Amino acid sequence: MVHTHSSSGNLRTTHITYTTSDNGEATADFQPCSVTQKRTDVTYSTTKSTIVRRKVISSSESNSSSSSSHSSGSLRTHPTVYIVFVSLLLDLLAFTMILPLLPSLLDHYSLNDSPKGLYPWLLRKVQYFQELVGAPDRFNSVLFGGFLGSMFSFLQFVASPLVGGLSDVYGRKPVMLICLIGIASSYVLWALSKSFALFVLARIVGGISKGNVSLSMAVIADVSSLATRGRGMALVGIAFSVGFIIGPVIGAMFAHWSHGQSGDWFVVPALFALCLALTDVAFVLVCFKETLPKEKRARSLAGSLAQATAYISLPDLFRFKAVKNIARSDLAELQQLGFIYFVYLFLYSGLE
Predict the structure, then answer these.
(1) Are residues 277 and 233 in the same domain?
(2) Which residue range forms the structural domain that includes residue 177?
(3) According to the UniProt entry, which residue ranges have a biased composition of type Low complexity (predicted)?
(4) CB–CB of 183/90 below 8 Å?
(5) How many domains is the chain built from?
(6) Of the listed ranges 13-27, 157-171, 211-225, the one predicted with least confidence
(7) pTM, full prediction
(8) CB 99: neighbour CB atoms within 10 A?
């Protein structure tokens, strides 16, 4: 039996002839010869060595191709990140639109709220604080606006960890939809708020429902690798920047328009914000896909909510108690950065 193996490189080729005699002895004859082009030609009868050799080459090429494809795919931004970006942008446009309207809204309620309503009662408290610090009367609207803004932010601070805990148990999408429906409901209350008390209630509902922001970051963490997570978080920052640029401009246009209006003029901007919120709900309902599979969800609601309290307790928050498996030196550096960022936001929010 004769098996022929002919292989070549750039300079030379070797012709190998295997001969098997009748008594079972095998001999090999090596005959080098020249070649004129680079070529590989393998001719075997059906032997195990042929099959193994071809399998090894095929497996090696397959692994190399798979590794290259995986490396390329891991650097791509997940489509869900862009869905989160659009959802946040719609939400922030509606949220920031009301900021330039606050002085006009407070002037409206100062003239139209009931003498026994919430506005006169709160005004007396503000005047007491005004006399205590020696602030002029013209700053009353600033103090009112500060009260409403602080109340909204405090409710968001309390609600966000609880929303995160609920999403760990029930999934991201249903909790996200509940938050967005709550935000839309707050704009409905705003459109109906003929009294200052109802307007404050609208802000309370909006603050409690504002956990969608932190939930969006959790979604990005779900679908991003370490290599692409920074890019996803950057898109969250871009959504905030665009929202805080365009939203107040829209609100300023409504504020300018309101000076020539009488009656409940605030209904128009409230309905505009409601349209944005309902668009956000429909967009998430249709386009957003669940990012936390059932097998990865927390099993205990009580345990998940108990863990969320570490984000609400101020002493635990500043100590970063919720951060686990980190070196002491890294934790100390994280605490310093957290405190510096807190001071920065404290001053920035006051100036804003």
Answers:
(1) yes
(2) 97-312
(3) 58-74
(4) no
(5) 2
(6) 13-27
(7) 0.74
(8) 17
